[in-house]
Design a protein that fits this description.
single chain; 53% helix; 212 residues; 5-stranded mixed beta sheet
């Protein structure tokens, strides 16, 4: 493997010792390639943490500062997503709508103990299909817009929406103020993939847990 790939593998170790990191940095590195690989695999927070832990002088100053700046920006995005997720969960709970968040900040906290250690994306929520219209209404009330409605220029008819929800698995909402994206799922994949999951059973087994 190339030294750039070996450094990437060092970065994904949560508890990599300094000697391990220093060894990965001891080979001649193409730093442009390091950056390309890091961004392609969404590992900027992990790489920044790894480079911070290296012995002084092994990482070019401009590279280290660029990663630190980029990580700070991603951490701010993760914090914004975390605050919005907690607000959404409270809002759904007030209306007795069961919502199970997955991936996103929840996965980051479970996997790394820190939401800023995973590159932020969108907010994925698993809900009951019977509740999806109430979920959409709440998101509209919070200022979100349905991206598909925006693209088509009109809302679906009742028949079209029933067909959409039968074969698709999610809606995609975005907030125009900060571009936070929320994807309420009633299934994990499209019907055409023929994945048979007992979603009601999954949601019935869900239990509250601590987050943030």
């Amino acid at each position: 493997m190339s030294p750039e790939v070996l450094l990437l593998l060092a970065a994904v170790r949560v508890d990599a010792p300094r000697a391990f990191i220093d060894h990965a940095l001891s080979a001649p590195l193409d730093w442009t390639r390091v950056v390309q690989l890091t961004l392609a695999h969404h590992l900027a927070p992990a790489m920044a943490r790894t480079l911070d832990a290296a012995s002084p002088g092994l990482v070019p100053t401009d590279v280290l500062e660029a990663f630190q700046t980029y990580r700070a920006r991603l951490a701010a995005q993760s914090d914004r997503l975390t605050r919005e997720l907690t607000a959404l969960l409270s809002a759904f709970d007030e209306r007795s709508i069961l919502v199970v968040p997955f991936k996103g900040p929840v996965l980051a906290e479970r996997a790394f103990g820190d939401v800023s250690q995973r590159t932020p994306g969108d907010l994925d929520l698993l809900v009951r299909r019977a509740d999806i219209r109430h979920v959409r209404q709440l998101l509209f009330e919070r200022g979100y817009r349905d991206i598909d409605d925006d693209r088509s220029g009109h809302d679906l008819t009742d028949a079209q929406r029933r067909m959409y929800e039968r074969y698709q698995c999610e809606y995609l909402f975005v907030h125009p103020d900060d571009e936070v994206m929320v994807e309420p799922h009633w299934e994990l994949c499209q019907r055409t993939l023929a994945l048979d999951v007992d979603y009601d059973g999954m949601l019935d087994r869900a239990r509250p847990g601590e987050f943030a």
